[in-house]
Amino acid sequence: MAEKSGEFMYNGKLNPDGSVSLQGPHLRLTDKSGHEISVGQCGEGPRISFSFGINPEDYHLIRDGFYVEYSDFNVYRYAKKINEEWLGFNSIFQ
Fold first, then answer.
1. pLDDT at residue number 93
2. Please, how many CA atoms are within 13 Å of residue 87, restricted to the half-sphere of its CB?
3. Regarding predicted confidence, which is higher, 66 or 88?
């Protein structure tokens, strides 16, 4: 049975007309000390995967570990009317 209401997380923007806009990826890399590492190329794969690259001269900065901040996820709430017509959705962050 399909849910009549709920929430979901998605790394794109759902537009009121039903289309989807991808917005990233917006990544921030830092070393274990919190110093920012320049991100080179970025990409998004199927579903919610993403990838990034750094310059070879910066490899030493990630040798002991690093942190990735990915800020493209949106949380959406949805609901259906009693007669099953679609009410739509909205982001809880907008």
1. 47
2. 13
3. 66
